[in-house]
Amino acid sequence: MANLRKYLIIFFVSFTFLSQAQNRVTFQLIHFPAKDSSEKIYLTGNFNHWVPDDNNYYLKNSNGRKEITLSLNSGHYEYKFTRGSWTKGETDMKGNPSGNRSVSIQGDTTILLTVDGWSDHFDHSLISKNHFTASENVHILDTAFYMPQLDRYRRLWIYLPADYAHSKKSYPALYMHDGQNLFDNSTSYSGEWGVDEFLDSMFQKGQQQVIVVGIDHGQEKRMNEYNPWEFQNFGEGRGDDYVDFLVKTLKPYIDENYRTRKSKKYTSIAGSSMGGLISLYAVLKYPNVYGSAGIFSPAFWTASGIDSAVIHQAKKVRSKLFLYAGGKEGDSMIPDMLRIEKEIKKHSKSLVKEVIDKDAKHNEAAWRKYFPVYYKWIYGK
To answer: How far apart are alpha carbons 294 and 267 in whole angstroms?
Structure first.
């Protein structure tokens, strides 16, 4: 009997090892536009948390091609190529942003790939107006709004309700990150959220309207602006300065120049990935400013201090918090979100709504789909 147990243990250990064995997967880029052959090309995806310039994932030269070999567990993966930032990501031959690539890995394999174009190789100001998708209610508030806390300038967008110019009403205000991706397909990297189209349709139905302020991300500075903590090779986190800018500079400007309902109850903040992380942090740091937050696919794995921040600061927060994650965003996305959600519920009296879509990917299409769910929960009766 003892020998039988011994053999069973050996069998199960061996089976477990085999079931978790990793596969050698080679991504080989056989054609790509190149103005500088020495410039690095990176592979990024849900296997490295979508970091666009991770030095562990750049492709090496191999007989005129570029390739990288990874050890990956069997499963489904999404990925893209960049040249070190999201502003230098892959596109089609006309400069339109490419969607996520996907692959299901079941064994050792080599994948042959081509890139038709890079975003920064195109003059997007010359793209046909037929590609511009922003509604007439979207305006560029400023092309270079000064951010004194960061000593930088940034483009700002603003969505005004369709009846704004013809009424004296005041509206709730929603502040959103990654402004390039909110309203206009021509400025987005991989599709827009469609915030303006959704709000236009809500107006036609006589539903609650809001003013939306979109703040462009800082391109290569995005990772440290949206993170209060240092992460990998992105240097010092500037998330505190960014959140201070929103509260001490931008919100007072918007409240002074537009008819907003200024109180906490009518002020919300929302974003995805790193934008989801900084949205939660903004509520933790300024619990008397934000009455609600949309925390989409939050990149909590980049934030070494997020657990401690929730534990020590959530008790001051009484807001409506919408948390969303997709099942195909990497192994850590849902567990990380559920862990933070548990701590929020433990330490805060906030009202929390959790949404998980097991089939959703880490992209604008998913966030576009669930933005209306967030909106109706926050602003619905």
So the answer is: 12
Count of positions (residues) in the chain:
381
Confidence of residue 321 (pLDDT cuts 50, 70, 90): very high
User: What is the pLDDT at residue 169?
Assistant: 94
pLDDT, mean of residues 89-100: 77
Give the whole-angstrom CA distance, residue 97 versus residue 91: 5
- How distant, in Å, are the alpha carbons of 219, 302, 303, 352 from that of 229? 18, 8, 6, 25
CA proximity to 139, closest of 191, 178, 182: 182
CA distance 338 to 325: 9
Q: What is the mean pLDDT of the chain?
A: 88
Q: How far apart are CA 234 and CA 223, in angstroms?
A: 7
Give me the pLDDT at residue 51, please: 80
- Here the tokens at position 155 are 């483009």
- Which of 158, 162, 192 is closest to 173 using CA atoms? 158
Report whether 290 contacts 320 (CB < 8 A): no
pLDDT at 21: 67
Q: Which of 106, 41, 42, 48 is nearest to 73 (CA)?
A: 106
pLDDT band for position 312 (cuts 50, 70, 90): very high
- Mean pLDDT for 115-143 is 75
Q: Distance between alpha carbon 356 and the CA centroid of its chain, in Å?
A: 16
Question: Which element (helix H / strand E) includes 313?
Answer: helix 306-313
Output helix, strand, coil percentages for the chain, rounded to the nearest 5.
35, 30, 35
The tokens describing 325, both together, are 């994650």
What integer is the mean pLDDT of 83-97?
80
Say if strands 60-62 and 211-215 run parallel, antiparallel, or are unpaired.
Answer: unpaired
Query: What is the DSSP code (8-state) at residue 260?
Result: B
pLDDT above 90 coverage of the chain, percent: 64
CA angle 58, 61, 64 (to 5 degrees): 140
Q: How far apart are CA 337 and CA 141, in angstroms?
A: 34
d(CA 25, CA 373): 38
Residue 186 tokens, joined: 């021509």
Q: Give the whole-angstrom CA distance, residue 83 versus residue 117.
A: 11
